[in-house]
Write a structure and sequence with these properties.
heterodimer; A: mainly alpha; Butyryl-CoA Dehydrogenase, subunit A, domain 3; 2 domains; 3-stranded antiparallel beta sheet; two-stranded antiparallel ribbon; 5 strands; about 10% strand; B: 3-stranded antiparallel beta sheet; 7 helices; elongated
């Protein structure tokens, strides 16, 4: 209930020899392969969680590099083509005085992806061995990262909308650049990386039981 | 220890709870990590279904009507959501076009459809349809990948980028899409895993 004191030494399904379904919260005896209620796969702990976290994250970083080097948009105005990278688009918006929007694009396309790499890397590293971190803080960090990751897609959608709208043949056309694909893949891979993280392992190796 | 019907396991931190009915208007949180596990709101299911059906109806407007219109005196250009989605359809960009279609239209519509399939009969006191449990599980799994609201922010950014180039106006599809985003957000606040699954259990056993 609301306001109940929370403690770190609660009995877990694992300690009780049971396994809980992460999809529907049902509890079954340990070793049951599939949840009888919702059909989801039951695993006491996802043994390959951290491996998959790292694999997806490396893939995400690999695609993030070309996404920032190559053009996102190719604008052709009366026969002349000009190319724009992610950061170039932010600078142009700022030049137009649209600082708020420039800020949104900068945060979504640069800060969030880089922040995600750092945060997931930190989490995956800390839970490997016994740690003295407050699990509550680690969970908040993880939930924040998981929630905010999808918002990086903004720039990909902006490119799609511009390409669809600006097709005036000779006068002006906008075409997508290869960075749009790289960036979209980078976002998908980092989302998969965050989703692979099994939050239950945060509590498994707490060194000292703190009061919070 | 043998598991019972009343036992609930926190999906976030694995702590075990013994849980009976939650009083109306109360929320039950995990004793260890604070995640909301159950919400005592008997009318929630009906509300979820009504919101999902409304969003589905609005979605047909989104597909058939123009979304944004661009004018600069000489030229006129219109784009529906469908056209936006197909904008990458040439050459190497084709996979991206498919991805945008999936994130913006296919997944949001599938989630709504799955929810109506799973919870619709419950809201009018009927037995659950076959596959209801699977549909409900998938609606939850697909949640992070349905990105309609992110697309809306993308629209706002695109509008500002084009402000110098031409006059823009919003079509009927724009407003229904806005409504869908708001309705979906409202619907998601009504959902709590344990409460919904318990309701589905009762409807299946009846």
């Amino acid at each position: 209930m609301d306001g109940t004191r929370q403690s770190n030494n609660a009995l877990t399904a694992r300690e009780a020899g049971l396994v809980g379904c992460r999809h529907c919260t049902r509890v079954m005896p340990r070793g049951t392969p599939k949840c009888p209620r919702c059909g989801g796969t039951l695993e006491s702990r996802d043994a390959h969680s951290l491996q998959r976290v790292w694999a997806w994250m490396i893939a995400g970083i690999l695609f993030f590099i070309p996404a920032n080097i190559y053009p996102m948009l190719i604008t052709t105005t009366v026969g002349r083509a000009s190319e724009q990278t992610i950061i170039g688009g932010v600078i142009e918006l700022a030049h137009h005085g649209a600082y708020g929007v420039a800020g949104i694009v900068f945060v979504a396309s640069i800060l969030i992806p880089v922040g995600k790499f750092v945060a997931i890397g930190y989490l995956a590293n800390v839970v490997r061995k016994p740690h003295g971190e407050k699990p509550k803080h680690l969970l908040h960090l993880f939930e924040f990262v998981e929630w905010i990751g999808r918002w990086s897609m903004i720039d990909v959608f902006v490119v799609a909308i511009l390409v669809a709208l600006v097709q005036f043949n000779i006068i002006a056309t906008i075409n997508p650049g290869i960075a749009a694909v790289c960036f979209a893949l980078s976002v998908v891979f980092t989302m998969l990386s965050a989703l692979s993280f099994d939050s239950r392992i945060i509590w498994d190796r707490i060194e000292t039981l703190s009061d919070e | 220890m043998t598991p019972t019907e009343d036992m609930v396991c926190c999906p976030v931190c694995d702590a075990l709870h013994e849980m009976g009915d939650v009083p109306d208007g109360q929320r039950a949180r995990c004793i260890r990590c604070g995640t909301v596990i159950a919400v005592g709101r008997p009318e929630a299911i009906l509300r979820i279904v009504v919101l999902a059906v409304t969003a589905l109806i609005l979605m047909t407007i989104v597909v058939f009507y123009p979304f944004l219109e661009l004018r600069n005196g000489v030229f006129d250009s219109r784009a529906s959501v469908f056209e936006t989605v197909m904008s990458f359809s040439e050459g190497v960009m084709a996979p991206l076009s498919v991805a945008v279609a999936i994130f913006v239209i296919v997944l949001p519509v599938s989630r709504l459809g799955l929810l109506v399939w799973a919870l619709g009969p419950l809201s009018i006191d009927r037995n659950a349809l076959p596959g209801a449990a699977r549909a409900l599980r998938w609606a939850e799994v697909l949640k992070p990948w349905a990105m309609a609201e992110i697309f809306m922010v993308g629209v706002a950014v695109a509008l500002i980028k084009l402000a110098d180039l031409a006059t823009l106006s919003m079509g009927p599809a724009f407003w229904s899409f806005t409504a869908i985003v708001v309705i979906t957000a409202l619907k998601d606040t009504q959902m709590s895993k344990h409460s919904i699954w318990t309701a589905l259990d009762k409807a299946t056993m009846r």
